[in-house]
Amino acid sequence: MGFLENTGLKLLRLSKPELAHNIAIKALNLGLAPKPEVSIFENLKTSICGLKLDNPIGLAAGFDKNAEAVDPLLKCGFGFIEVGAITPEPQPGNPKPRLFRLPKDQAVINRFGFNNLGMEMASVRLARRSSKGVVGINLGANKNSKDRIEDYAKVLKCCGPFVNFATINISSPNTENLRNLQEKNSLKNLLDQVLECRDNLKNKIPIFLKIAPDLSLNQIDDISQIALKMEIDAIVATNTTLDRRGIKSRVKNEKGGLSGKPLFSKSTWVLAHLSQRLDNKIPLIGVGGVASATDAYQKLLAGATAVQLYTGLVYHGIGLVSEINKGLSEILSNEGIDHVSKVVGKERDNFL
Q: Least buried of 33, 109, 128, 184, by fewest C-beta within 10 Å?
C-alpha cells in the first residue's frame, strides 16, 4: 500500500463508516482515489460461464450499490465487478446507523436493507458505461413487496440488457424473511420465473445464485439438487453471516450480517461442500474473508473458479486487488502450476 492510499484510509477511518463509504465512491468518480498499478498475468486469465476474465478476482455486491462508479472500478484491477443489490423501486433501507467496523476482527457488520435508488436509475447508469469489462448486477426485492419473486424478474428485465451476468440475492439477512426463499419449493418457483425472464432477453446472460453461509448440510443438498435440475449457471458462496462466535469487537452484538476475516472458514466450508456435490457441473464463486493472495488461493483450492471481495478493501484499500493478483500469480509459479484453472477444487476435501 502506497503512502497516499495509507493516508487516505486513515482519514476515512476517522469518519463514520457509511460516510466513509460514500466518500470512497465519490473519490473514485472524481478521479481522486489512488490509482493502483494494474498488471495482466497470463496464468490468471480465466473464464466463468463463457465470460472471459483477465483474472479471477471480483468485486462483490454491496460496494457500488447504485452503479455509480462502474468505469473507475473496472480500472482498479478487478477481473469482474458486481453492482447492487438493486430493487424495482427505490428504497431508503434500514435506519442509521447500519454499518459498523470491527477492526479487532478485521470485519464489518451491516444491516443496510437493500438501500438503493431503484432499477430505473441503475439501468441508465449501466447503459452509459464506457469501460470494457465484465459487469454483473445483484438482483434484490423490495422490503414491502407483495411479490418478491416477481421483483427479481422485474430488475432482470430492466437491467439485464446492460450487464454480463445477474445474481439472485436470496441470502441477505437484512430483509425480513428473505432467506426463506432458499427453501426448496420457494427456490424452485423463484428460479422458474427468473430463468424464464432471462430466456426472453435478447442477450441471454448467465444467472448466478448467491446463498448464505448459515446453512445445514441438508439445505446445501437441496440447493445443489435444485441448481443442477434448473441448470443455474453459477453459485456465489457466500453472503454475510449471523454467527458471532469468536468475535472480539465491542459492537459484535449489533444486528446485521457479518463479513470479513471471521467469515472465511464458514463460507469456505459451504463452498467446499457445494463443490463436492456439484462435481464441476456448476462453477462456484467464493466470497467471504478474502484479504490476501493466500486467501484467494484457498478459495480456489476449495472449489471456486473465481472469488469476490469487499470488506478487505475497508482495511487494505483498493490497491489490495493488484496485490492479490500479483501474489496469486507468484503462488502459482512457485507451485509449478501454469494456469489458475488447474487448482480449482484441488484440495477440496481439506475444507470439508
A: 128
E strand or H helix at 84: strand 80-86
The CATH number assigned to the domain holding 253 equals 3.20.20.70
**Which residue among the candidates 123, 145, 171, 172 is catalytic per the annotation?**
172
pTM exceeding the 0.85 threshold for the entire prediction? yes
Give per-residue pLDDT as tens, 289-311. Answer: 999 999 999 999 999 999 999 99
Contact 136, 162 (CB under 8 A): no
Q: Express each pLDDT in 123-147 by its tens digit.
A: 999 999 998 899 999 999 999 999 9
12 in a domain, yes or no?
A: no
What CA–CA distances, in Å, run from 4 to 33, 162, 213, 292?
A: 9, 34, 36, 20
Is residue 96 situated within a structural domain? Answer: yes
Quickly count helices (H) and strands (E) in the chain. Answer: 11, 13
The CA-atom distances, in angstroms, between 60 and each of 143, 171, 280 are 21, 14, 22
Rounded distance, CA 146 to CA 198, Å? Answer: 22
Domain residues for the domain of 209 are 36-351
Provide the domain count of the chain: 1
| 19 assigned to some structural domain | no
Distance CA 309, CA 44 (A): 17
